[in-house]
């Protein structure tokens, strides 16, 4: 272990009949240790003698079979700040690689994409056709754990073959493609099927940051790097901030066709300044120094002219007008509701830009109004794309809203730009210089109870045979999530995934893990290839992208306290 920090290892074999654990030290974690009678609760030496202690439930993660071995290594990064590495389970010989078939849609739309899931009848037709050409195919019923507003019977999938290594599945995929179907090789350990995941043997690898606001003298905050429209890796954002530890943050734009890459796809506040509007009322992680809360914020934006000049709605902030990633805006197509990983459109919009956006605002047809630091209109451009005035902002308008803004923005006049985030009661979120907001969703735990709001937060699509839900919610993926425990501590968790050595978590499993770590409120953050944890400048998680650590839109960073 590193000589710079103190490592403490806790190994458990949590059987159904035993409540004992072998440990090197009773430590302060988001679950409770009951020390033996007469034992000291003060800090112990770095290499104490092993001792046996009794633990109060839960004494292991609520993940997979109950009798799995679980090892926790706790590292003190600063007073009140720990990083816990958790390994649970062991390699499972029951898992294998298999070819999964994309079942053609029965929709009358000729452009309807193939789907991983379908009806039993349609799946059987595909399996029969494959069997007829010598591919031994099987039909499997997919049932998902019931969530607060989704889950249950998802449909049927078609698979073929059992392979010890991924490459062995390539000939079968080629034969499936020759028969006219799309296919790929997947690992069955990444399934999150109801009724089987509870008995899975793993393995899983997680990292947990625990921040105790009563003891920690540094700051939990967010950072997006030099500007919003560029992406940086979590490790580079951590290094630039001088962070003790960091994780990736919220959802962001990746595809230039969906907006400006790096732009938050949901609410964002940095140092008290609103930089991005919410996706409908999706949950947000609200940070104020080291205290955090999960709130459903919604947007109220406005542009008000002088006197009786009137008021116009402001659709968003720091994003390409007309493109709303994850939807959840106003008068958008195809929906005003959240719809994850979908880009809605709106032909008539007004969007404001701050200097944090980048060197220049998005270019294109429309109108752009420049405001100085006092809100005075200094210029009206009849084409979009310019540098944002230092200390000021710009307003871009497209479609019918361009004429409306032009009538309001008279050079020399003053405009008031309102960018309010409202809580569920309709009150404006109070922000100060230590306030940050990071977007995410769905909710995982609320007031100590599982409350996974996948449908409400846009992870359910009604026109794709549950395939998006199947891949994003139901299946195991790398995950990052955060929340608070009953003692007011903030926990930020990363779970490695898309690897045979670490299966990842379904959304339901993420909620189970959050609650078993002691969280009473928790929400999901961006995951998949974005999931990354950094400690002391090193990536301590195992990012899943083949290219390595993914550049992200923002990061949660834990900064050291200032020296006196």
Description:
With 564 residues, this protein is mostly beta strands. It has six helices and 38 strands. A hairpin with a 2-residue loop joins strand 35 and strand 36. It is globular, with a radius of gyration of 25 Å. Mean pLDDT is 89; it is low at 1-6 and 11-57.
List the keywords:
twelve-stranded antiparallel sheet; globular; 6 helices; five-stranded antiparallel sheet; 564 residues; mainly beta; single chain; disordered N terminus
Structural shape: globular
**Average pLDDT number:** 89
Uncertain spans, ≥5 residues at pLDDT below 50?
A: 1-6, 11-57
Q: Tell me the distance between the termini.
A: 30 Å
The residue fraction in helices comes out at: 10-25%
Strand content: 35-45%
Q: Number of helical runs?
A: 6
Q: What is the radius of gyration?
A: 25 Å
Largest pleated sheet: 12 strands, antiparallel
In terms of structural class, how would the helical and strand content be classed?
mainly beta
Largest beta sheet: strand ordering: 3-4-2-1-5-6-11-33-32-34-30-31
Give the strand tally: 38
List the helices and strands and how they pair.
Blueprint (H helix, E strand, L loop, with lengths): L5 E8 L6 E4 L9 E2 L16 E5 L13 E10 L2 E8 L8 E6 L17 H13 L4 E8 L7 E12 L6 H9 L3 E6 L16 E8 L7 E5 L8 E2 H8 L3 E4 L19 E3 L2 E4 L6 E6 L2 E6 L1 E7 L6 E3 L2 E2 L5 E5 L10 E8 L3 E5 L13 E5 L5 E5 L11 E6 L1 H9 L7 E7 L12 E5 L3 E4 L2 E2 L16 H8 L4 E7 L4 E6 L11 H10 L2 E6 L8 E3 L2 E2 L11 E2 L2 E5 L5
Parallel strand pairs: 21-24
Antiparallel strand pairs: 1-2, 1-5, 2-4, 3-4, 5-6, 6-11, 7-9, 7-10, 8-9, 11-33, 12-38, 13-37, 14-35, 14-38, 15-16, 15-29, 17-18, 17-29, 19-20, 19-28, 22-23, 24-27, 25-26, 25-27, 30-31, 30-34, 32-33, 32-34, 35-36
